[in-house]
Amino acid sequence: MKRIIAIAAALALLPGIGISQGSTPQAEAALSSPWGSTYFPNVELTNHRGEKVRFFDDLIKGKKVMINFIYTTCADTCPLETARLSEVAEILGDRIGDDIFFYSITIDPDRDTPEVLADYRERFGVGEGWDFLTGKDEDLLLLRKKLGLYVSEEDKLNTDHNVNLLIGNQTTGQWMRRTPFDNPYALAGQIGSRLGDYREARVGAGDYEDAPTTLPELSTAEKLFSTRCAVCHRIGVGDGRVRLGPNLLDVTHRRDKEWLRRWLLEPDVVLNEGDPIAIQLRKEYNDVPMPNLGLMKSEASMLVDFLEVEGRRVAKVEGNAILSELRHKPVMECCQKDELGTLKDEPEQSAQAGDSRETGPTGLGPRTLPSLLMGGFFTVLAMLIGRKKRV
Q1: How confident is the model over 220-239, as pLDDT tens digits?
Q2: What average pLDDT does this structure show over 313-326?
Q3: Residue boundaries of the structural domains of the chain
Q4: d(CA 147, CA 150)
Q5: Secondary structure (DSSP) of 61-126
Q6: What is the number of alpha carbons within 13 Å of residue 253 lying toward its C-beta?
Q7: What is the mean pLDDT of residues 232-252?
Q8: DSSP 3-state helix, strand, coil percentages of the chain (rounded to 5)?
């Protein structure tokens, strides 16, 4: 008993834990979730509209959120991350600003004023429910450390800040750190469903029996394109979504291949050199810079080869008038099959005139059970006679 009392006394001394006779509902709620105001800094930030807000009270309290750190002059992963999150926001649709909120916080407050953030936000076509914020250096550093998105000086290699993002539900205390290179539908599913409080009904959930047993193996070039390039580009019609960058169909014929390889390797250097093509592309596509993807020379060459081969394939498919027509044409009733693989409404074979008996298998005509049994008897008898002769 003394030991239990001692443990209880020790727990009472820990921050955020206390024992009282008449605890209030607010105190009980604070004890039930460790991810409340006692953990998250309630620092003051300024959004892209110039409004002052508090991080905990105004931004995350009782909400499902996505939080990442960027800076607008980044020529590396920040544009790629913002573009990917634009895809996620598009998938979530009207839920952004309703029950899900996105926050992009700068790590460069000296340059990224509210006006600069508003311009950056507009260039990426960001809608309501996604705020870009700035603040004091010391407050932003505290936030990065508390959210687990800080890279110390000794840990810095090829990046000057943590490129991960944080998604969470402050009400339930569920938090996950994700990478912007995740599939946008997977990210949307995680924040839209898995981080819910399970009060919303699941819509459109498929059955396990409908899931594929195997997935196709992708080449290195295909993986690179899907994780890096497909965020801002498509080849041909694709999924029909508007992208931030140009359509890459037939790009290996419109651009010199050596220029393409160098552009993929070091777009920031090409832009700084004043390359006219690079400058024109940036101007035409809303002044969004092509990010440096950190590719190796071999990866850049593989991507160029992939763009050429995939471009030919897509052009052949999308340029085929017959395939294009069939793609939107409903299946004729005579070709619709049931779950057993047989044609629906298959006409029965016509019986002989005046014969109303059931039709047998194709090519056999009307058959009755006695006739089938008799035929089987004579077949077995013939086999036995033949075997006896051979012996």
Answers
A1: 888 888 878 887 888 887 76
A2: 63
A3: 2-29, 44-198, 220-327
A4: 8
A5: TT-EEEEEEE-TT--SSHHHHHHHHHHHHHHHGGGBTTTEEEEEEES-TTT--HHHHHHHHHHTT-
A6: 9
A7: 80
A8: 45, 10, 45
Determine how β-strand 52-54 pairs with β-strand 44-47.
antiparallel
SS3 28: helix
Per the structure block, which two tokens stand in for 297?
A: 């020379």
pLDDT digits (tens, 9 = 90+) for 83-98: 889 889 988 988 999 9
Buried b (16+ CB within 10 A) or exposed e, 318-350: eeeeeeeeeeeeeeeeeeeeeeeeeeeeeeeee
> What's the CA gap between 274 and 364, in Å, rounded?
81
Could you tell me the end-to-end alpha-carbon distance of the chain, in angstroms, rounded to an integer? 96
Q: Is the pTM of this model over 0.85?
A: no
Q: Which value, to the nearest 10 degrees, does the dihedral of the CA atoms of residues 266, 268, 274, 277 take?
A: 70
CATH superfamily of domain region 44-198: Glutaredoxin (3.40.30.10)
Q: Any idea what DSSP says for residue 201? A: P
CB atoms within 10 A of CB 197: 10
pLDDT for the residue numbered 29: 45
Residue appearing with tokens 């009282």: 20
Look at residue 378 in the predicted model and tell me its pLDDT.
54
Residue 184 has a pLDDT of 84
329-384 pLDDT, tens digit per residue, is: 554 454 443 433 344 444 444 444 444 444 444 444 444 445 544 555 555 555 55
Residues in the chain: 391
Over the stretch 131-161, which tens digit does the pLDDT of each residue have? 999 999 999 999 999 998 887 644 444 455 5
Instruction: Classify domain 220-327 by CATH number.
Output: 1.10.760.10
How far is 222 from 261, CA to CA, in rounded Å? 16
